[in-house]
Design brief:
Blueprint: E1 7-10, H1 14-25, E2 30-34, H2 37-45, E3 51-55, E4 60-61, E5 71-75, H3 79-90, E6 96-101, H4 107-112, E7 117-120, H5 128-131
Parallel strand pairs: 1-2, 1-5, 2-3, 5-6, 6-7
Antiparallel strand pairs: 3-4
């Protein structure tokens, strides 16, 4: 992760939550996506100051982001919602999008929708993402 990177994270699972904690501990500048009021509340409880609401049913963001995010990390929980959100986010960012998954879905699905990298891992330790 570059020193001046603006980071956007979709963290609907424990691995994503751990990544958010790591970003906070390292004082990285980031925002997180929330697809529901409950998810927004959970992110705020984690200490996320900048939460962007996304409505994947209406295929729109609650507000347009004021920053260009150079790096976007999606921690996949389910294929469908991740694909919907990926399509939505790719429309307004030219940043590098990473999908982090434990599943064995064909990476071509995510690549066709705009992901730059699909990372398969069974670990919840994602510190390596910060060192790239």
């Amino acid at each position: 992760m570059g020193q001046n990177a603006m980071v956007l994270v979709f963290a609907p699972n424990p691995a994503g939550e751990q990544f958010v904690r790591t970003l906070s501990e390292e004082n990285k500048s980031f925002a997180a996506l929330a697809c529901s009021p409950g998810e927004r509340e959970r992110l705020q409880e984690l200490g996320v100051m900048n939460v962007i609401d996304a409505d994947i049913k209406k295929k729109q963001l609650g507000q347009l982001p004021i920053n260009e995010y150079t790096e976007v990390y999606f921690f996949e929980e389910a294929l469908g919602p991740c694909c919907e959100l990926l399509e939505l986010i790719r429309q307004w960012t030219h940043g590098t999008i990473y999908i982090i998954t434990k599943n064995h879905y064909p990476q071509l699905i995510y690549k066709a929708l705009g992901a730059d990298f699909v990372i398969r891992t069974t670990s919840n330790n994602h510190y390596f993402l910060l060192d790239k």
